[in-house]
Design goal:
The complex is a heterodimer. By secondary structure, chain A is mainly alpha-helical. Chain A has one domain (3-411): Sodium/glucose cotransporter. Chain A has 20 helices and no strands. Chain A has helices at residues 3-27, 32-37, 44-55, 58-71, 74-100, 105-110, 115-149, 154-205, 210-221, 240-257, 262-265, 274-305, 308-314, 321-334, 336-378, 385-410, 417-439, 445-464, 491-507, 514-526. Chain B has a domain at 76-166. The radius of gyration of chain B is 23 Å and the shape is elongated. Classes of the chains: A mainly alpha, B mainly alpha. Chain B: Pfam families: DUF485. Chain B: The chain crosses the membrane at residues 87-106, 118-144. Chain B: Keywords: Membrane, Transmembrane, Transmembrane helix.
Chain lengths: 536, 167
């Protein structure tokens, strides 16, 4: 049996299993709290796994392993930013948010403010961030099938995007948060198992000596010791000062973006109490940290055992490094059959990874559309729970369909920058609004609206006028040049700008609701009046 | 209303079983007599917004002023809970962000130092990166311990108090 057939069979088993769970979850989804927050009945450990499943995207798994395989040490920078970021969520956001919110990020912002402008801003930002992220994953799925199965036609890539999109729509529309969470839990377990297995085989090959692995990786890379040092990918000598500033800019967006990503924030609502939210982030940190240590070995292992040239030949961005490594190390340890099996396993895991992440993103954006924009802005809080859930399901379908179309259209474009952009927007617009809202007594509607639009607008505009969109041969539009902002990452400007807008908007407005602030502060710290778990 | 009947309009019994969650300013507090309305706000642990608002707030609130949330917010116990929470998370956030940015800046500007090999092919850059993992796990663990011991019992007590008052 070829690896393609086996991978398809394994993937079908995953799809079959998760669809069964989804149907079961759908039967147990009765009200809005079930659909949006899984009835708030997941345990800390379950939600911790789901956090891992939601967060460890194909960009983390295939992307970082590939970056390390091609550029060595610099790929590791991404992992560190992605991990340290969870401390912001743990210390400043998760528990307070669980105690004072209900279904979406906007619930926390709208608590003591004028609901319509704040929910509109938060809804726009949530949907924008989620679509950016979603698009990058969809295009990634199309590229992955081409790489793993040798389908290079646009039709095959398009068909993959349609398949991934259709599955994510089913997960969300039928299973709501319960179904999506279980898909993420299953994926997290599969991904950790697969990555651990390959890592152990690689380490075994090198006698569990990290130094030997690094030596071989440096040799095979053709770059020598420089492969083990920063500077091959980011802030290279050729880029000079702007490269170094770009590195800081990226680092800031990675570390501050996570706690502003809507699909991550809504995970804190799926547990019964703030203590469970804390516990789930602790589990999440453990799983995500372990995973990035595994990718370090996978990346250097791919460089050492497969070689940078062969990886670059298969995919210039290195996205196939992990599957290629799985095949090679399988062959070395178990022979040809072992290589085929291991490649198929990792390919199927990669697809499961994409599916779980896109489902989380679709759920976050459709929840915000229905709960924030439809129920509170269009219907001014008059919509019933039934109507809200119906609209959420319809909008999941529409957002899924839109992202399929955009994904097919964008498959020939270089959209890898969209993940970094999603983090930058989350750090520049959402995070200032959330932190001010939770910690600053004086904060008000004008401040929240200014922070979100200011951060979102500046991050997007700076990227539009950056070298990733025009003016270089790797840009989105190679034919034009309107890049006057020299950095690829907007964070170093847009994050302070978002915080500044939030402050300025606040002090320029006289609005202040002391009574609601007291309620929010007491609730957020004590858990009084927090939304309870479902009883059914 | 020149004098308030009870000190804060809320029960002042010790909160946590371990006795760690008492009001600031002493462990064994004797029962107070009627408080004068002009007691300075800082004594109650309230941050006055303006000098003018200061005493007015205290006068209004010594018994039943404001919502249950406002009364709890002004209580010394809640102020202590907030202080304990912020006294951990704010310095910890500054510490890990500084530590992380130091790592990023060194990766950009101190290539020679980062490339120094320590043991075999393991260099400073790799060790620094791995230490970021260690510090993240460590801060997470310390926070969990702090929250379990110092925040959760007090939060539970105050939460029950708010919900009791709301009825």
């Amino acid at each position: 049996m070829s690896h393609e057939t086996l991978a398809v069979l394994l993937f079908l088993a995953f799809v079959g299993g998760t669809l069964a769970i989804t149907v079961w979850a759908g039967r147990n989804t009765k009200d809005a709290s079930d659909f949006y927050a899984g009835g708030r009945s997941f345990s800390g450990v379950q939600n911790g796994l789901a956090i891992g499943g939601d967060y460890m995207s194909a960009a983390s798994f295939l992307g970082i392993a590939g970056l390390i395989a091609l550029y060595g040490y610099d790929g590791f920078l991404y992992s560190i930013g992605f991990l340290v970021a969870w401390l912001v969520a743990l210390l400043l956001v998760a528990e307070l948010m669980r105690n004072s919110g209900k279904y979406t990020m906007a619930d926390v912002l709208a608590f003591r403010m004028s609901p319509r402008p704040v929910r509109t801003a938060a809804g726009v930002s949530t949907i924008t961030v989620s679509i950016f992220y979603l698009l990058a994953q969809m295009v990634g799925a199309g590229a992955l099938v081409a790489l793993l199965f040798g389908f290079t036609s646009d039709f095959a890539k398009g068909a993959t995007i349609v398949l991934v999109g259709a599955l994510m729509i089913v997960y969300v529309v039928v299973g709501g948060m319960k179904g999506t969470t279980w898909v993420q839990i299953v994926k997290a377990i599969l991904l950790m198992t697969g990555a651990t297995l390959v890592t152990l085989l690689v380490l075994g090959k090198f006698g569990f000596n990290l130094s030997t692995l690094l030596r071989d990786a440096a040799e095979q890379s053709g770059k020598g010791d420089a492969f083990l040092e920063p500077g091959l990918r980011y802030a290279t000598e050729a880029q000079g000062l702007s490269g170094k500033l770009d590195l800081i800019s990226l680092g800031l967006a990675l570390v501050l973006g996570t706690a502003g990503l809507p699909h991550i924030l809504i995970r804190f609502y799926t547990v019964p109490t703030a203590r469970d939210a804390r516990k789930s982030v602790l589990w999440g940190i453990g799983i995500i940290g372990a995973f990035y240590l595994l990718t370090l070995v996978l990346g250097f292992g791919a460089a050492a055992l497969v070689g940078s040239d062969e990886i670059r030949k298969a995919n210039p961005a290195g996205n196939t490094a992990a599957p290629q490594l799985a095949e090679r190390v399988g062959e070395i340890v178990f022979g040809d059959v072992g290589g085929t099996i291991l490649l198929a396993v990792i390919a199927a895991v990669a697809f499961a990874t994409i599916l779980a992440v896109v489902a989380g993103l679709t759920l976050a954006s459709s929840s915000s559309f229905s709960h924030d924009l439809y129920a509170h802005v269009f219907r001014r809080g008059q919509a019933t729970e039934k109507e809200e859930v119906r609209v959420a399901r319809i909008s999941a379908f529409v957002i899924g369909a839109v992202s399929i179309v955009l994904g097919i259209y964008a498959q020939r474009l270089n959209v890898a920058f969209l993940v970094a952009l999603a983090f930058a927007v989350a750090a520049s617009g959402n995070l200032p609004a959330i932190l001010y809202s939770l910690f600053w007594k004086r904060f008000n509607t004008a401040g929240a609206v200014a922070a979100i639009y200011g951060g979102l607008g500046s991050a997007v505009l700076l990227v539009v006028f950056s070298p990733v969109v025009s003016g270089s041969d790797k840009a989105l539009f190679t034919g034009a040049d309107f890049s006057f902002f020299p950095l690829e990452n907007p964070g170093i400007v847009s994050i302070p700008f978002g915080f500044l807008c939030g402050w300025l908007g606040t002090v320029l407005s006289k609005e202040h609701n002391a009574e609601k602030y007291a309620e929010m502060e007491v609730r957020s710290l004590t858990g009084a009046g927090a939304e309870p778990a479902a009883r059914h | 209303m020149p004098f308030a009947r009870s000190s804060y309009g809320i029960d002042r019994s010790p909160m946590a079983a371990d006795g760690s969650a008492q009001a600031p300013g002493g462990s064994a507090q004797p029962a107070r007599g009627p408080l004068h309305v002009a007691v300075p706000a800082f004594y109650l642990g309230v941050t006055p917004v303006t000098a003018e608002e200061d005493h007015v707030t205290v006068e209004k609130d010594l018994d039943r002023g404001g919502t249950p949330y406002e009364r709890v917010q002004r209580s010394p116990e809640f102020q202590e809970l907030r202080r304990r929470f912020r006294a951990f998370v704010f310095p910890a956030t500054v510490a890990f962000l500084t530590w992380y940015l130091l790592y990023v800046v060194l990766s950009g500007w101190a290539r020679g130092f980062m490339g120094t090999q320590i043991v075999g092919f393991i260099n400073v850059a790799l060790i620094f990166g791995l230490l970021q993992f260690v510090s993240t796990f460590l801060i997470a663990w310390l926070y969990a311990r702090h929250a379990e011991a110092k925040l959760d019992p007090m939060a539970a007590e105050l939460g029950a108090r708010v919900e009791g008052e709301g009825k």
